[in-house]
Design a protein that fits this description.
The protein has 500 residues and is mostly beta strands. A hairpin with a 5-residue loop joins strand 7 and strand 8. The protein contains no helices and 37 strands. The protein is rod-shaped, with a radius of gyration of 49 Å. The N terminus is likely disordered. The chain has five domains: 73 residues, Immunoglobulin-like (Sandwich); 117 residues, Immunoglobulin-like (Sandwich), CATH 2.60.40; 99 residues, Cadherins (Immunoglobulin-like); 106 residues, Cadherins (Immunoglobulin-like, Sandwich); 60 residues, no CATH class. The strands form eleven sheets. The protein has a five-stranded mixed sheet, with no helix packed on it. One calcium ion (CA) binds next to loops. This is Cadherin-1-like. One of its GO terms (cellular component) is cytoplasm. Keywords: Calcium, Cell adhesion, Cell membrane, Glycoprotein, Membrane, Metal-binding, Repeat, Signal. One of its GO terms (molecular function) is beta-catenin binding.
């Protein structure tokens, strides 16, 4: 490596090899330590080797950065490491190199043939937004044939004689290449100019001029607010449900253009102040805590920030609005769990009871609407329960005639559930309905219902016509059966015996 001349205010470091080595003496005899460079463009291996990971622009000719070191007990130490670094250009070809601000083309190693040669020229780097003074010298182009022949240099191409014209100029005789104005990397990041050397030995060659980024753009959120939706029961899966994005016009390969995200605040701060996490690099937001409750906190507003330079640079603020969507985390409840009702026997479709319920989930949704089941007490299947028009009502009706003489009382257990299943196992509300069957005074019945009697016309008075018996189904209470005869025109038939 060689020190660069001070012809520009910045030095571009383009080394991709070991810069130096640091040691960390913790008196524990260990030779390897866990290091981490605060400046992510530098890497520190466990043996202390410092390497450069990305191109660094050194505006002051050196770079100061600190390195964390962890000792064997896990304690962190942060000494400051100061590196005075020099330019060392790894030329892709050994026949052209920049040294001390001079781009030199060497004679070919054969040296004998004056055939036209093609050069591989290292790129020239210019920081954007330079304050000048202009024209500012970038590099001096020099062919070592200049010792033998008078050379004349000229450039053509983008930034020279093509749009944008006049940005770069070359002094015809000296070969000094100048930039005439401040450059903007975000407008154009690199230029290709063609260098013509007025000498038959040199072919025209291409010089690439790269504009080195400065952090002159702040991140910009692509929308504001960002809207996200997440189920209130999503917490347990720590689910990722939305992503916020900010763009930065600066170089995306450097911290100038890499955006870091953070959550600044959360409103409301309940039930915990940090209900959500954001991925620093991707902007993906996920649920951090498991106790969201839409019924209490249906919406959160997060103030988010996007900043370059690993979160320490230029920043933009934005908003993420998170709507908590309903999950079935509230079981419906009976308003009254004990009912005693009386139902007349023999009726099909009789309304036995109406059981009302409540549910705290989202009104009108399947997490809120109810359905009912009789889980015990209906041996024989006499009852049905259906959901009433309010969706929060179970109506019990009879589907078969009840018979007081057979069963005088039913004790039904009814449970209420939602149309949607519960998110978790939740306790179900149960109602107990005691149904007393009311006795109805049923008419006595002749057995058989119709009897045809044949008697000869000349039977004597008081002849027994028939023994026709009737029974009363109301066996529960003692009842009297009265029999009478209604005969059309036969009023001389009389009932002579009544049996009980
Ligand atoms: Ca930036
Ligand atoms: Ca920039
Ligand atoms: Ca809910
Ligand atoms: Ca519910």
């Amino acid at each position: 490596s060689a020190p660069i001349s001070s012809h520009t205010s910045s030095v571009i470091l383009i080394i991709f090899k070991c810069l130096s080595q640091i040691t960390f003496n913790n008196c524990d005899g260990r030779t390897r330590t866990l290091f981490q460079s605060v400046d992510k463009r530098f890497d520190v291996d466990t043996d202390g080797t410092v390497t450069l990971k990305r191109q660094v622009t050194l505006h002051e000719g050196h770079k100061v950065f600190s390195v964390h070191a962890w000792d064997s007990s896990g304690k962190k130490h942060t000494p400051i490491l100061e590196h005075v670094v020099f330019i060392c250009h790894m030329s892709p070809s050994n026949n052209a190199h920049i040294s001390a601000g001079v781009l030199t083309f060497l004679k070919s190693s054969t040296g004998l043939k004056r055939a036209k040669r093609g050069w591989v020229i290292p790129p020239v780097n210019v920081p954007e937004n330079s304050r000048g003074p202009f024209p500012m010298k970038l590099v001096q182009i020099k062919s070592d044939y200049a010792l033998e022949t008078r050379m004349q240099y000229s450039i053509t191409g983008e930034g020279a004689n093509q749009d944008p014209k006049g940005i770069f100029t070359v002094e015809r005789l000296s070969g000094n290449l100048y930039v005439t104005q401040p450059l903007d990397r975000e407008k154009k990041a690199s230029y290709k100019v063609t260098l013509d050397v007025n000498n038959i030995a040199e072919k025209p060659m291409e010089i690439v001029i790269n504009v080195i980024d400065q952090n002159d753009n702040k991140p910009v959120f692509t929308q504001n607010p960002f809207n996200g939706y997440v189920h209130e029961a999503a917490g347990k899966g720590r689910c990722m449900f939305m992503t916020v994005t900010a763009t930065d016009a600066d170089d995306p390969d450097t911290n100038n253009g890499i955006v870091s995200y953070a959550i600044v605040s959360q409103e409301p701060q309940f039930p915990k102040p940090n209900m959500f996490d954001i991925n620093v690099l991707s902007g993906t937001i996920r649920v951090r805590e498991s106790d969201m409750d839409r019924e209490q906190w249906p919406r959160y507003t997060l103030l988010i920030v996007a900043a370059d330079m690993e979160g320490d640079g230029l920043a933009a603020t934005g908003t993420a609005v998170i709507t908590i969507t309903d999950s079935n985390d509230n079981p419906p409840q009976f308003e009254q769990t004990l009912h005693t009702v009386s139902v007349p026997e023999n009726k099909v479709g009789a309304v036995v009871a109406k059981l009302t319920a409540t549910d705290e989930d989202e009104v009108g949704s399947p997490t809120w609407s109810t359905k009912y089941r009789i889980i015990s007490g209906d041996k024989g299947g006499f009852f049905n329960v259906s959901t009433g028009p309010s969706q929060l009502e179970g109506i019990i009706t009879t589907v078969k005639p009840l018979d007081f003489e057979k069963t005088k009382q039913y004790v039904l257990s009814v449970i209420v559930e939602n149309d949607d299943p519960f998110v978790d196992s939740l306790p179900t509300s149960t109602a107990t309905v005691t149904v007393n069957v009311e006795d109805v005074n049923e008419p006595p019945e002749f057995n058989p219902k119709e009897k045809v009697i044949f008697k000869s016309e000349d039977s004597p008075i008081d002849t027994e016509l028939v023994a026709y018996t009737a029974t009363d189904p109301d066996t529960g209470k003692s009842q009297k059966i009265m029999l009478s005869v209604h005969a059309l025109g036969w009023n001389r038939i009389r009932m002579c015996k009544v049996n009980f």
